[in-house]
User: What shape does this take?
Amino acid sequence: MPRRGTGPDWKEWLRRWDEQQQTYLPYREWRFRTMLDVVEATVGGSGRVLDLGSGPGSLSLRVLQRFPRARVVAVDYDPVVLRIGQGALGSQGGRLTWVDTKIGGPGWTDHLPAGKFDAAVSTTALHWLPPASLRRVYRDLGKLIWPNGVVLNGDRLPWGPEDPRLQRLAERVRKVRLKRAERRVDWGAWRRWWGDAARVPELASSFAEQRRRRAQHPKERALPLNDQIRALRRGGFRTVAVVWQNIEDRVLFAQR
Assistant: This one.
């Protein structure tokens, strides 16, 4: 909550964001660590990283903390989380750049700082994109990433209709886990975070802009795993594979 007389405590809002995200994604930190391990093992820790769907900067911050010589460009289209991230993290001494653009929209890469990237990372974000937009993102990344550079997408990557038994298995496992967790998981944490944020006066204009933009947002539709693998290969990535998974929660890796 805001500190009396000093304005919002943006770092506390970021901490609360991480807390409510962890409620729904208990393997979130392990997934983060896996992604950063792969970045270090492939391109090292001194490069330029693109964080797609950065939110308030949870993954961006972990990249910068893990790799003191790295630079990150954090991209999102939600003005509320961008405002919180900028307030909480700033520019990290010039190492962190924030970009407000609609990922996957026509010309979205024109808003990025000039130059190529060693890695692109994303976590729990790209499932919001309609299939055509996600395919465009993967094609664009083929041009934005240096040769031998990597893409890592940590998200729910479902099995497609060609794997009906695995689809049914994933649904059964989801129900088993929900039943097991119903007494431990605070299912209202996400709604409370947004409800509390909506009462912060400094975020009023950001929420107004968010409402305007969401009228144009498509309904969530996760592109199946095999379709994403094919899209990355068509984008020019020679090695594409899942490097970590927990049922349908996966990290998809691609290298040019």
Summary: The chain has one domain: 10-255. The beta strands are 48-52, 71-76, 96-100, 117-123, 145-156, 239-246, 249-255. The chain has a mean pLDDT of 92. The first strand starts at residue 48 and ends at 52.
